[in-house]
């Protein structure tokens, strides 16, 4: 991150090139900060609706590209920093960055794999810690700290609290069955109940039978 | 210019890359419009003060690079559109783009040489007309129309009028000698008087003796 | 478009006035580019929700007006450029610009009718070609090239590919009936099947009986 | 000012049109606020350098026009609000708005003459008070409160203090003669000393002999 | 509002601090204008989705905070201006600002309670008029004019007309029963019909039996 | 810096408050980056001209305050991060932050003293190294690494090269005396020549006699 200190301050040099895989929550906020520091930022995304939203928010300052294997290869090969933010809720992250790509990347470039808590979106990603956060593969520095939000404990706590408190209150006031019956969002969050796996992606991924939440609450 | 119609409209494709040689009046306005259309714009410039001004105006959306021969080669080789706006008032434009560079450019890329009225800033530039504006060299389309502002006659007339009218009024009211004596800007504009060349760059370039304007007005 | 070259560059003159009929995809992207070039841009639109989205994206720099016949008359009479982008998917475009309006427009103003592929949104519009793109009616230059995206072939191809490829893959992998049964968006795109017209606007417009897509797939 | 409350909030209506005479300190800050509220703002200015600075700061969102009598007439006739901010330091403000223009203005439009402390820039301006701030001429509401900054006493005090305190300290520490001798800006502010008028515009305007400040300090 | 005149114009002083309760239509437009005038603006809001939309529109220039009683207390105590825009359609506004909070606020700060038409969102709010708009409680100036849009009659009329005209036309053309049957939005607007209260919040609030609109339309 | 990762991403929490002492090169670029990350940024500055430039560049998003001892005390006491960027070229930095202020600051707040190479602008600052960069005084973490640009070696090298190369070429081509005689900027950079101190601030600070550069070159 030290290198970031001069992105905005050095008009005589080209800005760092940041490539972000996935335009969801992780990718959008990474883009906001990288653009804020003056980087040249490209997001690879498959949803054209999402791309329209990104353009509406950031204007043409942000580059958005339809994500294909070819686009991942071309963009990452020129990047100073690649941020992996491709998550499929509850399932293993897809391996967009293969081992074979790395030798084509710039020496000393950095891969931050935010998808590491779901297994990572690079074949070469393995979880690291805040104490020992990085390792190198083919000249590419990997930063794959598990539970990254844990590094900013205070802000994470507020953020998590704000969105979960209403659910907690509902469960406490109504009991869990009625709370889930009344609120589809809370019901969607049910993973296991009465010995049944009620979250489809988890059931599929781990080889269990899937039972819809409604059946269990009934 | 037709291709511009989709720069802003196609979030799924990378924007066109525009490289501008020189960050003066021509380059700044070209940058304003290219950025407005959503292009990826880089200005090559030698003055760090000028680069600071460009960053203050356009923010980090505009890339600015210190102009060296290497930077011209690297940037132009990746450009879809190169705009030459390097002018040395009164003197021949420097030939920043050499004949040897062109084969390294993208096929079908475009060079707009706004410096053509001073001889052009590419070795391969030669003046063309609005009727027959382009020609091709090594796969690079050259647009080198002499007197480009003539293509937007109404706006050019207003622009020119606004800045020259005060000088015309001063000359009419005071006579030329007093008008020039009173106003350094007008005096700086004197090229020839009493058979003497009073503009240094012109005198040097054409091999005449240079006589400062003060001497002639005296 | 030549005139655009000085919009941003001439602070001493008023910007060109661009009026856009319809704030959908065509109108929004036309607005983005016209604003980017420094024009004074007004969109006429009937949906207040859409107007809110436009204000959220462009801020107060873009003028939005509720579209009535009176507003169309007033705004177009002062415009340098009118862009017609009012499309009703599958049906003929409404004739917002009548023949009687044209004499009130500025001489030499330009009408670009992007709705021409659906019949145009001006009574005086008729399809032209890239080879011979314009004609004049009552001093207003009409640009009504059919299939305008064909003029920027490379970008159009990428744009179209990105959004249609997933459908093509689904049809190839599942067969057309199952692909349409699984995906409401694809099903909505079905126009004719088994001799039945399955797209309501087309059926209504051409006088055929309408059969919902579900019935045909069944 | 009440009308301003809906400028930004009503995407269905055209914004108010604000015309500002003069692009100096008054005009620039008036423009900043009017643009901030979503108005359609035009500044009339004679200095092309100043117009460039305004464009660099506000972008193309602000319209700038070269100020001629014709431009003043045309722009004011369409305005909802005209702000007069044309000041010649120490001298009477020029009468850009003549009595004959007013009948061509919109009924109910407003003229705020910030130049009133120097006599006003409209022929029909005469000083009013915060208690009784407005009067009407030919359907145009005139707001010509003398010493307008007095209406925002706290902010004005801070603003004035910050810029004048260093001068006060210098005079207190060095004595007035040495303080003025050391600082050209302070010296420029000397109006009268030893019975001589040392400010040229005041001397010329009131018919006194002008004595440069240096002579008096000597 | 006079104080606003120097927000943008005085770089040497801190901007006014504006706190907005609720990020809906009222709060968003209040924020747009306060930001436009250069104020330091914070919105308190309970919906994280809405907060995301606000950040997407205004960027990080707008501060958004999750609304808790503690946050209301902390933010309002430092504000120069508090705007109450918390409305629950058809029901009494919640009393976010209690009588006990006021003594902790800055002396001379201002509370504008836009929710006054639903009873106000401060315990100390009571409706005032344009003729006599303010009163003071514990040093806090309350502005609680009922029907604030009535103060900008022309703009309000256009705004209201644009959104209600299509409903009026539908009722006139189809009769009220069919018009309501065809359009869920219009049906949602039905308050009373055939002696039954068909709007739930009103029925609950006033102690009447609630009958869904569908039942009445039959 | 880790905390920065959530500034832009957490609309539900207030942004970090960054206070910057001095609006020169260090302060301006620190502000650009902190604003880019979504922080609430205030610059304390004594030059009103400089404040105008900062407002013109950053708009009202940046807070600027006239720097007095009181303002430094008030602002720093509420800051999460204080950046000291007050440099007097060639002389010791003024001690704006006194030892007595620190206990009033937030526990865990951070002071980055970029002025450390000139002695630092806090009484408690002492130079540290990249290996061991921080220490704590009264709960305030001090980051006072000497030669901070050395941490971003590649960018610093380019930046330095671009501005110094023209001087090096001039000295090589003309000899140092003529190069300095021809160029006031280069001459201003002369510190010591022929045993004389030719830089006034250094001479004053270290107690040597000052000899103007012209005298030595002559």
Protein model, in words:
Six copies of one chain form a homohexamer. Chain A is an alpha/beta fold. Chain A is 36% helix and 16% strand. Chain A contains eight helices and nine strands. Chain A has helices at residues 25-36, 48-58, 69-77, 153-174, 176-182, 184-188, 200-206, 213-217, and strands at residues 17-21, 40-45, 63-66, 81-84, 110-113, 134-137, 140-143, 192-193, 196-197. In chain A, the strands form two sheets. Chain A has a seven-stranded mixed β-sheet, sandwiched between helices. In chain A, strand 6 and strand 7 form a beta hairpin. The longest helix of chain A has 22 residues, at 153-174. The termini of chain A are far apart. The B-C interface holds B 1-10, 12-13, 25, 29, 32-33, 35-38, 148-149, 151-152, 154-156, 158-159, 162-163 and C 1-10, 12-13, 25, 29, 32-33, 35-38, 148-149, 151-152, 154-156, 158-159, 162-163.
């Amino acid at each position: 991150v030290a290198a970031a200190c001069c992105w905005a301050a050095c008009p005589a040099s080209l800005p760092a090139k940041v490539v972000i895989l996935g335009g969801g929550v992780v990718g959008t906020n990474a883009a906001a900060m990288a653009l804020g520091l003056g980087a040249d930022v490209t997001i690879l995304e498959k949803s054209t609706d999402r791309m329209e939203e990104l353009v509406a928010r950031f204007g043409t300052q942000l580059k958005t590209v339809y994500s294909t294997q070819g686009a991942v290869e071309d963009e990452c090969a020129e990047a100073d920093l690649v941020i992996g933010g491709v998550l499929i809720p509850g399932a293993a992250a897809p391996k967009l960055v293969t081992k074979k790509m790395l030798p084509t990347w710039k020496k000393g470039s950095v891969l931050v794999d935010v998808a590491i808590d779901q297994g990572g979106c690079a074949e070469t990603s393995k979880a690291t810690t805040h104490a020992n956060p990085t390792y190198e593969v083919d000249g590419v520095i990997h930063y794959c700290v598990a539970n990254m939000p844990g590094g900013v404990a205070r802000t994470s706590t507020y953020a998590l609290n704000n969105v979960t408190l209403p659910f907690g209150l509902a469960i406490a006031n109504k009991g869990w069955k009625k709370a889930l019956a009344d609120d589809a969002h809370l019901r969607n969050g049910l993973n296991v109940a009465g010995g049944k796996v009620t979250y489809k992606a988890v059931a599929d991924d781990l080889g269990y039978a899937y039972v819809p939440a409604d059946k269990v609450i009934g």
